[in-house]
Amino acid sequence: MTGIATVYAVFADEAEAARIGRAMVEAGLAACVNILAPCRSIYRWQGAIEEATEIPALFKTRADRAEALIAAIAAAHSYDVPAAIAWPIAAAHGPYESWVSQEVS
């Protein structure tokens, strides 16, 4: 296991993903964020099946900062219950792991 993690989150649109992504990097909570292509989400919300186009993003951070990053994403997010989860990274290229660790405060 490495000392880094990826936090996955989805956003209402690309502007929100970019705004929050930039804010997390500027705050030192993430070394970088990859904003991905739109995806189609099907989910149950308040008893009804809903469909939406959302923008997924992958935030790279230190494992010990993942919870703080998730909390900051949730605080800035437009959704009442945003999806924001951390995946531990089992293996990584050493220089990349070092770079992520150095960039996250």
The number of domains is 1
SSE order: EHEEEHEH
Helix/strand structural class: alpha+beta
Query: What kind of sheet is the major sheet?
Result: 5 strands, antiparallel
Question: Using DSSP, what is the number of strands?
Answer: 5
Q: At the first level of CATH, what is the class?
A: Alpha Beta
Tell me the β content: 35-45%
Please, how many helices? 3
Task: Report what the structure shows.
The relative contact order is 0.31. The longest helix has 13 residues, at 14-26. The two termini are 20 Å apart. The chain contains three helices and five strands; from the N terminus they run E-H-E-E-E-H-E-H. It is of the alpha+beta class. The chain has helices spanning 14-26, 66-76, 94-103; strands spanning 4-11, 32-35, 39-45, 48-62, 84-88.
Please tag this protein with its features:
105 residues, alpha+beta, Alpha-Beta Plaits, five-stranded antiparallel β-sheet, 3 helices, 32% helix, N-reg_PII-like_a/b
Strand and helix map with partners:
Layout: E1 4-11, H1 14-26, E2 32-35, E3 39-45, E4 48-62, H2 66-76, E5 84-88, H3 94-103
Antiparallel strand pairs: 1-4, 1-5, 2-4, 3-4
Describe the structure concisely for a colleague.
The chain is an alpha+beta fold and 105 residues long. Helix content is 32%, strand content 37%.
